[in-house]
Structures are given as C-alpha cells and as structure tokens.
Amino acid sequence: GVPGEAIEVASALDDLNVLPPLAGVDRALWPQLLAAAEAEAAASGGSSLDGAIARAAHGLGAWRDALQRGHVWEESEGANWPAAPDLRQEWTRVLRELDMPRFTRRHPKLLNPLLANLLETVETFESAREQQQEEQQQDQQQ
Predict the structure, then answer these.
(1) Cα distance between the two ends of the chain
(2) Which of 87, 79, 49, 40 is nearest to 62 (CA)?
C-alpha cells in the first residue's frame, strides 16, 4: 500500500538528504514525485537526481498554489516545470480546456489527484523520451 511505501520513501529520502525540497509536498505524492524526477533526470542525460527532485517539488508546489487560487501557473510567472516545454504547454491547455482551475479553487480535494496525474504524465512522457533517445543512439551506431 501507499502509506508503507511513503514511509520507506521518506526514510530513503532522509538518507539522501533531499527532504528540504519536499517539505511543501504532500507525503502521499512523494513516490510519484520521485518517479517523475528520476525519469526527468534520466531523460535529460545526466541531470542530478537531487536537482530534479528539487525542481519537481518546487514546480508541484507552484502548480498547487496557482490551482488553489483558481489560476494556471504561467510562464510569465516563472513556470518552468515540467521541464519539457511542450509537455508544460499541453498540461496548461488541458487544464484550461477542462476549466480545472475553477474546480480546484472550489474543491481543493481535487488537487492531489490532479497533481498525481501530472506526476504520472511526466514520468510516462520522460521515460518515453529517454527510450526514444536510446533508440536514436543505437540507430546512429549501426
């Protein structure tokens, strides 16, 4: 179950000394945040995991804050996560299309499931991107 997994993750994070960036993130989202950050770090070709975790935690917090206020986190406000601009723009478009900022302002309980969906999407997108890059490298070597 997730609670036991979250405790294991918290213990591992404590060992890695990455808890400070996660202080503002709901513990229930830690496993997904770590998976998304790990996928981003791997796909970026050597970005540090600590840095990826800090960026993801900051980005997730900024999305939460904006959505709680009924807004979308705009690039003009420093929106820089997810790291892939095309994924970030698509996420913003979908949120607006579904009128999610209004719903999340009125129903804060929707925030965690929505943010969990974002983290899962980032992990899937970045894992696919990494696989595509590996396939291109193999093609070039042949």
Answers:
(1) 44
(2) 79
